[in-house]
Amino acid sequence: MKTFRYRLFAFMTLVCLMIPVAVWAGGGKAEALIHVADTRMLSGVYLYFANLYNENLIMFGVWTVVVITALGSGLGFFMDMLMSHTGLDLTSREIRE
Fold first, then answer.
1. What is the pLDDT of residue 62?
2. Please, are residues 52 and 63 in contact by the beta-carbon 8 Å criterion?
3. What does pTM read for this prediction?
4. Could you give the CA distance from residue 84 to residue 90 in angstroms, rounded to a whole number?
5. What contacts 29, CB < 8 A, 6 or more positions away?
6. What pLDDT digit, counting tens, does each position of 70-81 carry?
7. What are the DSSP calls for 54-96, one per residue?
């Protein structure tokens, strides 16, 4: 009985894994999609980043990492300052694992 259940489970797993293959759309190879940002109604910094996204994705990625790192660091320092003003000193706590 265990062998039958094992085989049934294996078959049902195989069927579930093969369902996406059966419903894939047929046809030839698709053309490359081009993603661009619409810059018609933008100005200032938004226009700069939209043009940067459209023209140089590597530099856009570098700027994204820099900006997110700066914002995260700023938020961390602000929260540390806020916690120290409320009386929670997190710099002197002991880390126990």
1. 96
2. yes
3. 0.56
4. 7
5. none
6. 999 999 999 988
7. HH-HHHHHHHHHHHHHHHHHHHHHHHHHHHHHTT---TTPPP-
